[in-house]
Amino acid sequence: MSDIKGFKGRYKFLSNFYDSEVPYEGRKYKTAEAAFQAAKTHDEKIKDTFELIYNPANAKRFGRAVELRGDWADVKDSIMYNIVLSKFTHNTHLREKLLDTGDSYIEKQILGVILTGEFVRERVIIRWVKF
After folding, report:
1. pLDDT tens for residues 2-39?
2. I need a labelling partner for 23 at 20 to 30 A (CA). Which of 14, 78, 90, 130 fits?
3. d(C-alpha 115, C-alpha 105), whole Å
4. What does pTM read for this prediction?
């Protein structure tokens, strides 16, 4: 299979902005983006708000305004991994689409960071690579 660079068209489902319920830490978010933004804080009332946000761009915008938890820099990569894993574990139709990518190299560039992922034996492996 060919490389997948960008989460558009038939690969839009790979995006954290894709409309798919994501259970995380006992809550259900409308998108992986909302789950990730909610994980930035320990404030339960703010997390309640993120559960209600349908628009991932709004979740991202609201997430920029929350006070970050003290350990955010240390835990954000593992949190992203677990949220993406939850997305594809919980949504079997998306998991099947991911499996259909075979051994394709998957990459998404986001603001100076390249996110790469490989699907290996029913595990999603994500690395953040700075350039």
Report:
1. 888 778 899 999 999 999 999 999 999 999 999 999 99
2. 130
3. 11
4. 0.83
What's the token pair of residue 96?
């099947």
Cα angle 36-109-46, degrees, rounded to a multiple of 5: 15
How would you label 2-28 residue by residue, b for 16+ Cβ within 10 Å and e otherwise?
eebeebeeebebbbbbbebebebeebe
Overall size of the chain counted in residues? 131
CB atoms within 10 A of CB 114: 14
Pick the closest to residue 62 from 54, 73, 74 (CA basis): 54
pLDDT tens digits along 33-67: 999 999 999 999 999 999 999 999 999 999 999 99
